[in-house]
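pinging the channel bc i need a second pair of eyes. not urgent but kinda urgent?? the chain im working w is below, pasted from the shared doc
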Amino acid sequence: MEYADIASLHQVSKIALGTWAIGGWMWGGSDERDAIATIHRAQELGINIIDTAPVYGFGRAEEIVGKALRQMPVSQRPYIATKVGLNWRDGKVYRDSRPARLRKEVDDSLRRLGVDHIDLYFVHWPDHQSDFAEAAQTLESLRAQGKIREIAVSNFQPADMREFLKGAGIAANQLPYNLFERDIEKATLPFCQEHHIPIVAYGALCRGLLSGKMTAERKFTGDDLRRVDPKFQAPRFSHYLAAAEALEALAARLGHSLLGLALRWLLDQPDLACALWGARRPEQLENLPEALGWHLDSENFREIDEILQKHIPDPVGPEFMAPPEERPEDL
């Protein structure tokens, strides 16, 4: 395993276990026994940070993570990263970083996780109806109480971070970043570099497009997120599949899989602290070593960029995932 530091969190594995799918919601459900076994297997493979959130299954992912933690010796428990600043009603999610909401959520997360503090606490999405500095100051008070160790943000753009920094420091910014989704390179990544804010990347395999297993015949049903992802709709789906096929050929020439190439590309980014690897079954972690123990060189990076430019004429980002800016007045 490879490791990095995130503020006061030392030797954090550069691959974190992502638990969105473990929550079940928008991923077609999950099996609790499989999920707990996945968390234990991640630990065996050297992953020492678990990323979760209250909204993943509306509390279910945090509860499952908590059950898995209770089965481990305290000394072997991983770092816990979770999130704050979303509210929901009837399956609809809204941004909410008002101080009262932040204080309620941290206590709810601590209870579900069964821990006395959260190591890395992300504001899940910027809430432009709330005051950023006030939210940051509220989180600073929670840190002073010992409920959290480090304050972080997620999906924050430069203007958002600039306001947030008026009330607290930022230990990391969790952002969508992968071979197919690179919008953060335009402005957000340079801002983070300037202010020494490391990146935690989510969506490393771009919801399966970079797994090496996606085909044109694949169908998405129920509440599967990919039903509304523009990348999985014609004609873009064929463009991304063609790019994946070309990237897979490059990976094979290098002696690796497409999955290994996609994750290695992320791990070789200089400002990356860690990348999330989403899994809900233990076997989904078995390919993890394919990304470790080697590096891409400048020629490899050039070839990758040429493949993307050739096959994806109309790239699209992950904007479809953003919850609405407005929330009901009575929420």
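so The first helix runs from residue 32 to 44. and The first strand starts at residue 3 and ends at 6. — does that match what u expected or am i reading it wrong
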